[in-house]
Amino acid sequence: MSKISRYQRGAALAVAALGLAAGTPALAQTTPAKGVGINPANIDNSVQPCDNFFQYANGSWLKNNPVPAAESRWGSFNELADRNYATQKSILEELSRNAATAKVGSNAQKVGDFYASAMDTVAIEKAGLTYLKPYLDRIMALKTLPEMQAFLADPKAHAGSVWFNSGVGQDEKISTRYAVQFYQGGLTLPDRDYYLKEDARSKNIRAAYQTYLMSTFTRLGDTQAQATEHAAAVMRLETKLAKASKSRVDLRDPQANYHKMTVAQATKEFPNLNMPLLLKQNHLGTAKEVIVGQPEFLKEVSNLLAAEPLADQRQYLRFHLVSSVASALPQAYGDDAFKFSQVLSGAKQQQPRWKRMLRATDGALGEAFGQLYVDKAFSPAAKTRAKEMIENLRKAYAERIMATDWMSAATKKEALVKLNAFAVKIGYPDKWKDYSKMTIGRKSALQNVLAARTWAAEDNLSKFGKPIDRTEWGMTPPTVNAYYNPPMNEIVFPAGILQPPFYDPKADDAVNYGGIGAVIGHEMTHGFDDQGRQYDSKGNLRDWWTKEDGEKFNTKAAMVGKQYDAFMPLDSVHVNGKLTMGENLADIGGLTIAYQAFQKTAEAKSTQSIDGFTPDQRFFLAWAQIWRTNIRPEAARQQVQTDPHSPAQFRTNGPLMNMPEFYKAFGCKPTDKMERPTADQARIW
């Protein structure tokens, strides 16, 4: 997002905008006030708001803001992220200059040296594979299954994400405990279907991946013939993993992806993982049980480890190691990775190195870096105001729950308990992570990447056996995003998103409720979407609904799924209503709750227009303008296939098509394209 600018608006433009909304309620003011937070210049007055509100609210912006060459999409999120990047870059450059004089072991020294070493391309080129060679040599020395098992069990082997994913996390059915968990993984392409589908685009992506594999192996010193053979081996192994993997839709069922078993059972089920050794080497030897997300996948991995030639397995490990640290290797490795990513994203050129390394620093030392960011970019007053809005929305949500005509009193009571139990995190953690055990220096970017990876793994593993850390954050402070965490039953809003256009202390209530208010409502609704509703007020995966209410919910949710299935961002490409179900429900619910909370404000009750728009119209314009986005066709196709969020135009229009309040605000008629008959409107809350 860009910083919201102040602007002047001519009376003629204001009248033209109002004239397009046939039947729009009359405005009390003849001379509109000047507003902050909505840019009327973004509006395309050639489009009827009730035909395509996304295009109406953003059409001029979309026309004047094509996707930059180094991006796959461009919108308000990107503009705000870029503004945050500018602040972060100035912090990092200052720390890099002063790292030599900073106290050794301090956060300032570590952040400064991590970024400086990542930006020192001369030193990276000179080092070549020097610092990676010991790890590559260890892989190539693996000759037997026991040696492979010992390698996979070693947290300092730095193999990258291979075969499967594992770690320590909350037990979703006993949310007061940490548990050892195993999940499917090990793929390079974005989704299992990229390996399996036979359409032309999928085949083209696989061909590009083969080229990337061959380039990497050639750079590692293989002959062309060897590189071809090794690339084929990696593709063959990953295709087997893909066939054993669940689809993204199937992964959305939390009950079907929870399988608790004893260590003895897991050892018997997956004999070639050597579970006892794996647990022991990761300081988890006292674990009596493990949770396996996808047992059939882990069975396939166990079979592959014993049945597949170790020579092929070594190439799989070799590639994953190199590709996971490509940014810290000579430029040619990163160039190869980007060339492949272009086929997926459509980006025309690589992002500048400073931006990529800034994100790497944020990933490695996010809270050390984040402390410095919030000092410059986030005020205590902003945190206080955000908290007030959250409580206003919580009250509005309670009212909506009580007003539902389809939910029984028993389920309503449980829903209110859960709503009132939501933990709220705003801006930044109350307790920052301790990076004292991470050693970072100026000499080697690669060694720093591996040191950060080791620290993160050890930090995660160290949780086992301890009380749940409810102060922990899943995003860093500068992140332009927000989330709901079901086992924690918490809603979290980093400082990065609490800025214009989502939130602007200078803007009127309509803008803030249509922006950050809808975001807050969105995260709250995740607690009651098709997945989140399966967790109780304490974060336990437990069915607290009556049977009848659950069936009614599913019927309403199915209506939403059918609506979004019909949306087509590209010719012959449909949104997947099942994959995007949770986010669509959260968008619809979030906007509904935000609107109800906004109606309690003095501004909403007034008839005063700003820039020629009523309070309700400004609320809906704020909603639409935060989703303004241009996207490349390649990226749009990938989003539809892999992203649980619907494309921006449907995130805007989909909820509005289910809101009579929107129809009234803009005077929509039954003949307009966005208006649905009441029976076809889908709104749960």
Task: Report what the structure shows.
This protein has helices spanning 11-20, 53-64, 76-98, 107-119, 121-127, 133-140, 145-153, 193-196, 200-219, 224-244, 263-269, 275-281, 295-307, 310-324, 331-345, 353-377, 380-403, 409-421, 445-461, 509-526, 547-565, 581-598, 602-605, 615-626, 633-642, 648-656, 660-665, and strands spanning 73-75, 164-171, 174-184, 259-262, 289-292, 423-427, 483-485, 490-494, 629-631. The protein has 27 helices and nine strands. The strands form three sheets. The chain has a four-stranded mixed sheet with strand order 2-3-5-4. Strands 6-8-7 form a three-stranded mixed sheet, with helices on one face. The protein has a domain at 145-324: Neutral endopeptidase, domain 2. The chain is globular, with a radius of gyration of 26 Å.
Sequence-ordered SSE layout with sheet pairings:
Layout: H1 11-20, H2 53-64, E1 73-75, H3 76-98, H4 107-119, H5 121-127, H6 133-140, H7 145-153, E2 164-171, E3 174-184, H8 193-196, H9 200-219, H10 224-244, E4 259-262, H11 263-269, H12 275-281, E5 289-292, H13 295-307, H14 310-324, H15 331-345, H16 353-377, H17 380-403, H18 409-421, E6 423-427, H19 445-461, E7 483-485, E8 490-494, H20 509-526, H21 547-565, H22 581-598, H23 602-605, H24 615-626, E9 629-631, H25 633-642, H26 648-656, H27 660-665
Parallel strand pairs: 3-5, 6-8
Antiparallel strand pairs: 1-9, 2-3, 4-5, 7-8
Helix pairs in contact: 3-4, 3-16, 4-16, 4-19, 6-14, 7-12, 9-10, 9-15, 10-13, 10-14, 17-18, 17-20, 17-22, 20-22, 20-24, 22-26
